[in-house]
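seq as requested:
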Amino acid sequence: MGIEVVEGQAQDWKKPGVHVVLVRPQIPQNTGSIARLCAGTASHLHLGGELGFLLEDRYLKRAGLDYWPGVVLHRWRDEGLLMASLPRERTHCFGARSMRLYTEASLGGDSVLVFGSEPTGLGDAWYQGWSDRMVRLPTTRAVRSLNLAQCAAVGVFECLRRSGWSGEVGP
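struct tokens:
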């Protein structure tokens, strides 16, 4: 079971659907779970910057199960190029330090959702350059943040809910 990867390019953002961007993901199981989410919602998955695992990782493949052929995977090795290519008006960066809730953002079926790595989130460059596009999921102070795959699922399904998508019936 090979994972098909295309090199990320600026025109990728013109492709219809929700785009999920993981910047420097470190845990293969989270990325695999998000890949399955993307396959099940016809969303694009973008991996940016240095990964904490290889795309051949067995945990990554196992978490994505046999859904990998349905994943449109874009690989951005240069995080700066990724950041510069994003369509600002459609991009929403999720970060625990943001004051604005995701429910206040103009999410829709063509949104680009950016998430940082599991241990550190999005770095300062993202908060500085994209402060007007930062949103967060509400939590209690009992946790620093939610699991990356959970956050991606909330974001994707909120985009789809707002666009009126109700999925397909049946297996």
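The longest strand covers residues 19-23.
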